C-alpha cells in the first residue's frame, strides 16, 4: 500500500500534516510533506484527530474539457489549448463533509477528477521540468451549478465557486499506477456513472502544469484539477457521491441543502 499523507485537526484545534498508519494512527510531521516534513515523536490515535482536506492551497486551478467524450457530451469540442478556470480555496471541504446545495441553483452536477498537488515553485516550466514539480495526487469533485454555468456569459466563478464545491481527499499519495481507473458512483448503485482511465486525458499532468506555469506561478501546496470524464450528471439533496481512483482510495460526500440567505 502506498504511503498516505494526511492533514488532520486535533480536538484542541491544532492542525498537523502526517502519515496515516495501517492501524489508523497518524505519525505527525514537522512540516508539510512537500516541504520536506519529517516524522516527529507525536502519534495521534484515531479518536484524537479529524481528517481535513489533505492540502490548503493558495489557489485551485482547474481544467475544463480535458477528455474528448466529456467535451462531446457538453456539446463542444476539446479546446486547442487547456481551458483554465479558478475555484476559490474556500470551496474545499474534506472527505465526509457535506456538499451544500445552494438555493440559487436548480441543477448541481458532480464531476470526479484527479487532482495534482504542487511540491516546488513552478514558473515558466517545460513539461519535463513540470513533471518534477508534481509532488502527489488526490481525488477531487469539481461540483458545478450547471444551470448557472450555462447562463453565464463570462467566467464560471459563481457556478464553480460556492462553498463546499471542491471536496478533496481523503489523502495524498506520491505515485499512481499507469492508466489508473477513475470511477464515480451515486448512492448505493454499483454501476459507475463515470469510468475512465486517467491516461485518456487530452493534456496530461506535465503538460497542464507547464501550461499553467507560463501564466501564473504555482507554489508548493497549490492544487490542479485535471478535468472530468464523460458521465457528469445532477445530484439532489440526500445523494451520496463517491469518487474512486485506483491507487488512491475513495472520496465520499453527501449533498445537503444550504440555507437561504436571511431576508
Distance from N terminus to C terminus (CA atoms, Å) equals: 52 Å
Helix content: 10-25%
CATH third-level topology of the largest domain: Fumarylacetoacetate hydrolase, domain 2
Describe the main β-sheet briefly: 7 strands, mixed
Number of domains: 2
- Number of DSSP E strands: 20
Describe this structure in words.
This protein is mainly β and 263 residues long. It folds into 2 domains: 4-51, Roll (SH3 type barrels); 60-257, Alpha-Beta Complex (Fumarylacetoacetate hydrolase, domain 2). It has 5 helices and 20 strands. The chain has helices spanning 68-73, 127-131, 146-151, 157-161, 205-213, and strands spanning 4-9, 15-20, 26-29, 39-44, 50-51, 60-64, 83-87, 92-94, 99-101, 108-110, 112-118, 134-141, 144-145, 166-173, 181-186, 194-197, 223-225, 233-235, 240-245, 249-257. The strands form 4 sheets. It has a 7-stranded mixed β-sheet with strand order 7-6-17-11-12-14-8. It has a 5-stranded antiparallel β-sheet with strand order 4-3-2-1-5, with no helix packed on it. A 5-stranded mixed β-sheet has the order 9-20-19-15-16, with no helix packed on it. The longest helix has 9 residues, at 205-213.
List the helices and strands and how they pair.
Blueprint lengths: L3 E6 L5 E6 L5 E4 L9 E6 L5 E2 L8 E5 L3 H6 L9 E5 L4 E3 L4 E3 L6 E3 L1 E7 L8 H5 L2 E8 L2 E2 H6 L5 H5 L4 E8 L7 E6 L7 E4 L7 H9 L9 E3 L7 E3 L4 E6 L3 E9 L6
Parallel strand pairs: 6-17, 8-14, 9-20
Antiparallel strand pairs: 1-2, 1-5, 2-3, 3-4, 6-7, 10-13, 10-18, 11-12, 11-17, 12-14, 15-16, 15-19, 19-20
Amino acid at each position: 500500500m502506498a504511503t498516505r499523507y494526511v492533514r488532520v485537526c486535533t480536538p484542541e484545534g491544532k492542525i498537523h500534516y502526517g502519515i496515516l498508519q495501517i492501524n489508523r494512527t497518524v505519525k505527525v510531521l514537522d512540516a508539510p510533506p512537500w516541504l520536506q516534513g519529517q516524522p516527529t515523536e507525536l502519534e495521534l490515535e484515531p479518536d484524537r484527530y479529524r481528517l481535513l482536506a489533505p492540502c490548503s492551497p493558495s489557489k485551485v486551478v482547474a481544467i475544463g474539457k480535458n477528455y474528448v467524450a466529456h467535451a462531446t457530451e457538453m456539446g463542444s469540442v476539446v479546446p486547442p489549448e487547456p481551458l483554465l478556470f479558478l475555484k476559490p480555496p474556500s470551496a474545499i471541504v474534506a472527505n465526509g463533509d457535506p456538499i451544500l446545495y445552494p438555493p440559487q441553483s436548480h441543477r448541481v452536477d458532480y464531476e470526479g477528477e484527479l487532482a495534482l498537488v504542487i511540491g516546488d515553485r513552478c514558473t515558466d516550466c517545460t513539461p519535463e521540468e513540470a513533471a518534477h514539480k508534481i509532488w502527489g495526487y488526490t481525488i477531487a469533485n469539481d461540483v458545478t451549478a450547471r444551470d448557472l454555468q450555462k447562463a453565464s456569459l463570462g467566467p464560471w466563478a459563481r457556478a464553480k465557486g460556492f462553498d463546499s464545491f471542491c471536496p478533496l481527499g481523503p489523502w495524498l499519495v506520491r505515485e499512481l499506477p499507469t492508466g489508473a481507473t477513475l470511477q464515480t458512483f451515486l448512492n448505493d448503485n454499483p454501476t459507475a456513472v463515470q469510468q475512465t482511465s486517467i491516461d485518456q486525458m487530452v493534456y496530461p499532468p506535465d503538460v497542464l502544469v507547464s501550461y499553467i506555469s507560463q501564466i501564473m506561478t504555482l507554489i508548493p501546496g497549490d492544487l490542479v484539477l485535471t478535468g472530468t470524464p464523460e458521465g457528469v450528471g445532477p445530484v439532489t439533496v440526500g445523494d451520496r457521491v463517491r469518487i474512486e481512483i485506483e491507487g488512491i482510495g475513495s472520496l465520499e460526500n453527501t449533498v445537503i441543502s444550504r440555507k437561504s440567505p436571511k431576508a
